[in-house]
């Protein structure tokens, strides 16, 4: 058993400290020790960095079982725990804890306080606690529950490598999938969620969320609240549903944007040949349902109900008028009297597209979509599938 003074310990002594040794700190008013575990990053080995009164010293992993005496405060009730080669369960306490898994399939449980959880290798389960936590999945296919036990104040989580599952908490969380094909779900709060790399599935939560697919062919879903969906690179699917008015941006690639909300949505296809699908609508008499802001002549429109009931070849008509009300009245005539399935009307600088989706021509149009800043030359029957 050896006693070392932090102020004079050498780097060689620090790396060779062993369980049972003592490390002393000079007393002082409001003295504070900061302890952080740094995982292996070749050529540097895993280490524990201790900072006190402006000095930082790197110790070996043997320092992980800390006990405190006297006037030195290690972040009230905080703990530092490091897993080994096997499967372990590491649990924090009331303070701001640092929990680091080892090579096995570990379970890390935060508690009160703003905890740092790092799974490292293995397929780990990481459960945050009540504070604003920072969670890294590490290598392997990890499951991260930002708030497994209690509500949180807003946490940060990153799946890193592997195909991870990440579920947010009640706060305003920031969630990243990292590499791999990840599943990410928001909950309460206004969250920022990014799939990052891989083909990810992401569900917004109850708040006003921002969801980004990143690289890969991603599937994004809105939820309650007014959400922003951004597909990013790849051929993405963006699905808007729930009671809130949302905005969807496909980004690069041939994207599919699905509007299944009764609220008005704003749709940007982005680069590529995009498909816009409509699975829900308000009565056209209350105004148009959704806006397509960057419609291109190579894009496509799909109304599932029309394809389901239509046996005869579908028909299309178009005209020019001066108001939405006139456009709706004329479209209803084209549908009820002439049997048109789709009707396009030029109104000012925009095109309104009406569709009969319920198979009952007598009640006229069931859906109205606006193509912002477009002309009748930009759309025809070939754009409907």
TrEMBL record:
Entry keyword set: Secreted
Family annotation (InterPro entries): Hemolysin-typ_Ca-bd_CS, Hemolysn_Ca-bd, RTX_toxin/Mannuronan_C5-epim, Serralysin-like_metalloprot_C
Coiled coil: none
PROSITE patterns recorded: HEMOLYSIN_CALCIUM (PS00330)
Cited SUPFAM superfamilies: beta-Roll (SSF51120)
Subcellular location as annotated: Secreted
Domain of life: Bacteria
One MF annotation (Gene Ontology) recorded for this entry: calcium ion binding
One of the record's GO cellular component terms: extracellular region
Keyword Isomerase: no
Main location as per UniProt: secreted
Stretches the record annotates as Disordered: 197-217
PANTHER family xref list: S-LAYER PROTEIN
UniProt name for this protein: Calcium-binding protein
Organism per entry: Phenylobacterium hankyongense
